[in-house]
Specification:
Elements (H helix, E strand, L loop, with lengths): L3 H55 L2 H12 L12 H11 L1
Length: 96
């Protein structure tokens, strides 16, 4: 005849086996999630590197200078265009 202690022991062993199975299943799910997230992170890092390279290419001074000349009708500053503050004040006071 099976004693009640044997039945309780069998039930507790089955409980431990089930609990162990659930923990192992959750562990593998989390491991897959971590792998997906790590892949996503490395993909985003690659995208950031690409965007930084594009920004560096588009921000080249000679490119910006040619765009400014085309779009803003800008001309280069000549030394005669630079005024001293004293010259400006003299012009103001001469007119008044």
């Amino acid at each position: 005849m099976i004693k009640t202690t044997h039945i309780l022991l069998l039930i507790s062993v089955l409980g431990v086996v089930f609990f162990n199975y659930e923990i192992k299943k959750n562990y593998h799910q989390k491991e897959k999630e971590i792998l997906k997230l790590n892949n996503l992170i490395s993909e985003k890092k690659q995208n950031i590197k690409l965007i930084k390279a594009e920004l560096a290419y588009l921000s080249r001074p000679e490119r910006l200078q040619s765009i400014a000349k085309q779009q803003l009708n800008m001309k280069e500053i000549l030394p005669s265009d630079i005024w001293n503050i004293n010259d400006i004040s003299k012009l103001y006071f001469e007119k008044n």
